[in-house]
Amino acid sequence: REWPEWWDWELELNPHLLKRMEDRRFTEIDLRQMLERASGYHEDVVEGRWVIETRKNSYLEVTFRHGRPLAAYLYLPRQPADKSYRTAKAEPGLVIDFNRRGKPIGIEITAPDKLSAAALNRVLRRFGLPTVTRADLAPLRAA
Predict the structure, then answer these.
(1) What is the SS3 assignment for 107?
(2) DSSP string of 28-44?
(3) CA 96 to CA 73: how far, in whole Å?
(4) Residue 134: is its pLDDT beyond 90?
(5) What is the pLDDT of residues 77-92, one digit of tens each?
(6) Whole-angstrom Cα distance, residue 54 to residue 80?
(7) How many angstroms separate the CA atoms of 84 and 7, rounded?
(8) Band of residue 135 on the pLDDT scale cut at 50, 70, 90
(9) How much is the pTM?
(10) Which long-range CB contacts under 8 A does 103-107 form with residues at least 24 apart?
(11) Handedness of CA 44, 50, 56, 59 (dihedral sign)
């Protein structure tokens, strides 16, 4: 992937960002880990801002309303043609989507502000899937 010249600039953690990180309970280490896993970037709707895409085998999509996470979806490894065939409730606030063959393809997070990595990891381990870290869930606290 081609990265813009600013990608290699030293991070500047201004007071506003530090306050946001503190409010959302993630650290500079969490931030740097997310950036190390970045797979791409695109312009944000706000001019001069960029969205950094971080994906590994799974990736998290978060829907925000009025600056707060409203819902989230953890995409699990899947084939492009996989569609949700059935769902099952797991931990409180987590709904698993399964494809036609019974393989989990995603996890709907209905209460993202209450989600813990431990609860999500219990579900992931049940299916032999890679677990998440606090850094992976930082977008839930990053608004």
Answers:
(1) strand
(2) HHHHHHHHHTEEEEEE-
(3) 10
(4) no
(5) 877 778 899 999 998 8
(6) 18
(7) 37
(8) confident
(9) 0.61
(10) 103/78, 104/76, 104/129, 105/75, 105/76, 105/78, 106/73, 106/74, 106/75, 106/76, 106/78, 107/73, 107/74, 107/76
(11) negative
How far apart CA 97 and CA 85 sit, in angstroms, is 7
Contact 124/88 with Cβ under 8 angstroms? no
Instruction: Centre a 10 Å sphere on the Cβ of residue 97 and count the other Cβ atoms it contains.
Output: 22
Q: Please state, as a whole number, how many other Cβ atoms lie within 10 Å of the Cβ of residue 58.
A: 18
One-letter amino acid for residue 86 of the chain: R
Q: Which contacts (CB < 8 Å, 24+ apart) does range 89-97 have?
A: 90/123, 90/126, 91/119, 91/120, 91/122, 91/123, 92/119, 93/119, 94/119, 94/120, 94/123, 96/123
Residues 6+ apart with CB under 8 A from 124: 130, 131, 132
Q: What residue type is 28 in one-letter code?
A: E
Q: What element of type H or E holds 88?
A: strand 86-89
Asked if residue 46 lies in contact with residue 74, where contact means CB atoms within 8 angstroms, the answer is no
Could you give the CA distance from residue 117 to residue 136 in angstroms, rounded to a whole number? 9
